[in-house]
Amino acid sequence: MASDLEIKAKEAFIDDHFELAVDLYTQAISLSPNNAELFADRAQANLKLCNFTEAVADANRAIELDPSMSKAYFRKGNACYELEEYQTAKAAFELGSSLAPGDARFTNLIKKCDEGIAEESGDLLDQPLEKASTQVVPAEGDQESDQIVNEVPNQATSQLIVKPKYRHEFYQKPEEVVITIFAKGIPAQTVAVDFGEQILSVIIDVPGEDAYHFQPRLFGKIAPEKCRYEVLPSKIEVRLAKAEPLNWISLEFSKDSTVPQKLTVVSGTHGYSTHSEGTGSQRPSYPSSKPKRVDWDKLEAQVKKEEKEEKLDGDAALNRFFQDIYKDADEDTRRAMRKSFVESNGTVLSTNWKEVGSKKVEGSPPEGMEVKKWEY
Fold first, then answer.
1. d(CA 110, CA 106)
2. Which residue, of 125, 177, 282, 356, has the fewest CB within 10 Å?
3. How many other C-beta atoms lie within 10 A of the C-beta of residue 348?
4. pLDDT tens track for 24-78
5. What CA–CA distance (Å, rounded) separates 320 from 312?
6. Cα(63)–Cα(71) distance, integer angstroms
């Protein structure tokens, strides 16, 4: 049954029905999941559909099943080249060349990768390159020929975007990006994760269910050898080690993305600040978990200065005058002021303790008013 599907898939590919070919290869893989040829051929169909991350994942699986398959390295290199992952592409082409030393295609493509790497490094600023897609044109009756052409991918054939089966979120630190895929109760053996120079491939293939593919081109480059993942009871956690301490404004790469911001760790805090490459402006990226330190002495001095300079009228001015006297007075003066004010029901305010300390202070109401005692 799997062989029949494989034959139909090859026929669909030759007839340029690439989506149908991918679907047929997928059905064949479900029946023969350890067939490296099927994964390598589906990688080629995905290349034609411009599904480059899927092509990398298929090629990686084919290599895992058969490390001696040179065409799997060839297709992985092509997909990585299209994703502008020149280092990864070059490594794939070099491995493929070692398996097929007589194949001149690998030599030519390694040179193209070197040009891309040099361009990224700024070594070819005076020699702008026109990047070409290096895809293989199948000859009649053959899935892959030796002819390499410059072919512009047909974006119209890309697969439709569908709602993902599992929700995912991400957050970042200066040195890594952490992605959480909320897939509950997934057996670890059904999860396959691959890391590229700037791509991530997560495939969850639970028997009896539709396979889940999460294969984004990442916002920034990562260090694949330092990346790791863990399958937990309620989620899958993927940790991507950043190649550079840049602030990712999104998880996935976009040509409309703004200039990446380099993260600078702030000494003495748990947060860090960012600045745009080529600019001197700085702004906080993530707030510290600690409260901001307040200079209370400075704040108190500022409040006192404002209070002193504040201009008041009427009763407010009079109260301020008495407050200033009380604040600067000695203890006897303060006792005299408190005693006289309380005993006179607020009509007398004396600063002479010798005068009011030995007797009760009688009230002295303003002219035209009299003191009355309230009966309770």
1. 6
2. 125
3. 18
4. 999 999 889 999 999 999 999 999 999 888 899 999 999 999 999 999 999 999 9
5. 8
6. 9
Distances (CA, A) of 233 to 166, 189, 209, 213: 14, 13, 18, 19
Q: What is the DSSP string of 121-155?
A: TTTTTTS------EEEPPPTT-S--S-EEE----G
Q: Look up residue 87 and give its amino acid.
A: Q
The 3-state DSSP class for residue 365 equals coil
Can you say whether the dihedral through the CA atoms of 158, 161, 165, 166 is positive or negative?
A: positive
CA-based nearest residue to 166, from 118, 114, 116, 202: 202
368 to each of 14, 340, 343, 365, how far by Cα in Å?
115, 21, 21, 8
pTM over 0.90: no
5 burial via Cβ count (<10 Å: 0-12, 13-18, 19+): buried
Contact criterion met (CB below 8 Å) for 285 and 261: yes
**Cα(89)–Cα(81) distance, integer angstroms:** 5
